[in-house]
Design brief:
Length: 627
């Protein structure tokens, strides 16, 4: 339960229609096995204790008596299991029969949740009444148990874990419970398997969990239900915040499906979206879990910015280029710019930026020569990067200029009294600012705009020279982190290869293999001497920290925990701690650079534009933390 992580599961046991004792045996077994596996919230299908297809057996005293007896046995025999289980059964009350779900924990039935609306394929309205009454008590065994469909199960000592229950496909109840504070919705249901249903359920799970910032655990009736008129496939879905976290497909023989969800992330998104909360405090049912720490090994995605799967990668990379190019094309038209001027270094960021320029010119129906690529070699430039810059521009067909800035920088050193042998920050930043001055002036001379190349990762770390490479007229890479830029360029290389542009593909792949470097220090034996990741740390770690800190506001302690789970095999604990401290320090202290950013296109859910994405004072105190 630490940090809001909780393991949830949906179960579809084999059903013995009308035999509550056999069904209870299966339910008890699965609860015990799930508890051993670390599950904390376990959901069974609608009417799991009797079967949903009992027909007129629901009118018999025997079945109702057996169901009441067996739910008490389920509670008693699982009282040592640290799991809250939701088990469906029929319940008589006030001369009516209700389709209910019992919330079972610690040997008790915490509450009964009735089905509010009958919407079942098997027309259970013949047997069950819709429950729209105020909360009241129902005698189960020797005690009264609260029955209400408005209940929320509130985990003590963990305010982000609040569980609501919706029986069947009453989707309006999901919204109401979430607006009342529920972060996890359990959904026992008994829905027949029909053509098209699988896709509909999946779409509804994604849509509802995303719209209401919740996790939804749906357990559907399956094997053993009567096939008189319908077949039940046991399709179970766990969705979280607009994504499918885990799924058991129809007719899959597995009994359970589980996932670890992060309820703190759900609460964070609700706070940002200002979801309205109704006052249902009188219907909160408190419960607690034992002090435990949910395992997140294998759960945390180490590359949150990267699309998964080849098809998704191709689709996403193509769309990213479309978004960037559309933004730049609009700016070129609005500025009446004759040319797009870009500093081309032979590195990764300027490579993507010039590809975006090329796509923008295609959109506008303009020649590639309307791109003015300027390479500006100086003290740290290597033959490899300079050669790749020239090859790339040649293959794209852009205009190309080379302006060697070494003499201009030496004159500047003389003017300000700086020793050229002193390779301090003055030595480095003078080169960056000279390059910016040159391309800005070329843009002025040619009635163009300067296209910025800096990426989201650099913005987060402040890895840019203020009023140097930090500045442009329009930044096309400002919404894309370094790890994703690699994927987009690799995608473009693959597409170029498919289109027969072998030489272009080759230069793109060599750029991908080149170490990331600003090339501001002299090379050693012709090789790059200044490698960015040796100085500020691995971009895969920083992008991981960036995503989870900005997207979800995670604490440094949680960032460390999740990074260990994601990268424990690649980095030692001390290395992760060290680079996390670097990230937190640089992220806070470098805000002044982000506050003065030029316009640039947003691409994904994480952005650092001071105009709408991330607003932070430039003089905030740095985070003090112990891990």
């Amino acid at each position: 339960m630490k940090d809001g992580f909780i393991k949830v599961a949906a179960a579809t046991p084999k059903v013995f229609v009308g035999n509550a004792k056999k069904n209870a045996d299966e339910i008890i077994r699965i609860i015990k096995e799930s508890a051993e596996a670390g599950v904390k919230v376990l959901v069974f299908p609608e009417l799991a204790l009797t079967g949903a297809t009992c027909g007129d057996l629901f009118f018999t005293d025997t079945l109702i008596r057996d169901a009441k007896r067996e739910i008490l046995r389920v509670a008693e025999e699982t009282k040592e299991c640290d799991v809250i289980s939701f088990v469906g059964l029929p319940v008589r009350d006030l001369g009516m029969l209700f389709n209910c779900v019992a919330a079972v924990k610690g040997g008790e039935i915490l509450s009964l949740i009735p089905k509010a609306v009958d919407n079942t394929d098997i027309d259970t309205s013949r047997y069950f009444s819709s429950h729209a009454m105020e909360p009241h008590g129902v005698m189960i065994g020797d005690e009264y148990v609260l029955i209400t469909y408005k209940n929320i199960f509130d985990c003590e000592y963990n305010t982000s874990v609040k569980i609501g229950c919706v029986v069947g496909s009453d989707y309006s109840r999901i919204e109401k419970l979430c607006r009342a504070g529920a972060t996890v919705i359990v959904n026992p249901t008994a829905e027949a398997e029909l053509i098209g249903r699988e896709e509909y359920r999946r779409a509804a799970a994604v849509s509802d969990s995303g719209r209401y910032n919740c996790a939804i655990v749906t357990a559907n009736a399956g094997s053993g239900e009567s096939t008189t008129d319908f077949v039940f496939g046991g399709h179970c879905i766990i969705s979280e915040n607009g994504n499918i976290a885990s799924e058991k497909l129809p007719f899959d023989k597995a009994e359970t499906v589980s996932a670890v969800v992060d309820t703190e992330h759900l609460v964070h998104d609700r706070i940002k979206s200002k979801k309205i909360t109704e006052d249902l405090s009188s219907f909160l049912t408190p419960f607690t879990f034992k002090d435990c720490d949910t395992s997140i090994e294998g759960v945390i995605d180490p590359y949150p910015f990267i699309p998964k799967g080849d098809a998704e990668k191709r689709r996403t990379c193509a769309r990213i280029l479309d978004i960037q190019a559309a933004g730049l094309a609009k700016r070129l038209v609005a500025a009446r710019a004759r040319t797009a001027v870009i500093g081309i270094s032979g590195g990764l960021d300027s490579c993507l930026a010039i590809l975006v320029c090329a796509r923008a010119m295609e959109l506008l129906g303009r020649p590639m020569t309307d791109i003015t690529a300027v390479t500006m070699p100086c003290f740290g430039t290597t033959a490899r990067t300079r050669g790749n810059a020239e090859k790339l521009c040649d293959e794209l067909g852009t205009s190309f200029r080379c302006v060697d800035i070494a003499e201009a920088v030496k004159i500047h050193f003389r003017d300000i009294g700086h020793d050229a042998e002193d390779h301090s920050v003055v030595y480095e930043n003078a080169q960056a600012r000279e390059r910016t001055q040159i391309i800005m002036d070329i843009a002025n001379a040619e009635n163009g705009i300067v296209v910025g190349t800096g990426d989201l990762s650099e913005l987060a770390l402040g890895w840019a020279t203020y009023n140097g490479d930090h500045m442009s007229n329009y930044g096309v890479n400002g919404g894309i982190p370094k790890t994703l830029i690699r994927y987009v360029v690799a995608h473009f290389a693959d597409v170029s290869e498919e289109e027969g542009k072998t030489a272009l593909a080759e230069v793109l792949r060599d750029i991908l293999q080149t170490p990331v470097s600003p090339e501001l220090l002299p090379p050693k034996e012709g090789e790059i001497a200044q490698k960015t990741e040796d100085i500020v740390g691995p971009y895969e770690l920083h992008d991981f920290f960036l995503y989870r800190f900005v997207r979800y506001g995670e604490t440094p302690a949680k960032l460390y925990r999740t990074a260990r789970a994601a990268f424990g095999k690649e980095y030692t604990d001390e290395v992760i701690k060290g680079w996390l401290r670097v990230f937190m320090r640089r992220f806070v202290t470098q805000q002044f650079k982000r506050s003065a950013l030029p316009d640039g296109v947003k691409v994904g859910t994480v952005g650092l534009s001071p105009r709408g994405d991330f607003r932070m004072p430039s003089d905030a105190e740095t985070f003090e933390f112990e891990i």
